[in-house]
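Entry for the shared binder. Reason: the reviewer on the internal report wants the predicted structure included alongside the sequence.
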Amino acid sequence: GKANVLERNAHALKGMVANFRSDAATQAAYSLEKMGREKTLDQAAQALETLSSRVDNLDRQLRSFLEESGP
């Protein structure tokens, strides 16, 4: 069901953002993964907003790093 899909996808995303050492995004993805595993989706929309914000922040940090680094 939806909870299983959420768990799997959040787990995969958690690994991806962890590769960039983004603790905030990793924790947010873990929260969603846990909700899926426990099938407690009542706070999933709010947790997704948090994750989205933290991934956006990671994106800004990476873009800033690349701009500062030059070609």
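Summary line for the report: The radius of gyration is 14 Å.
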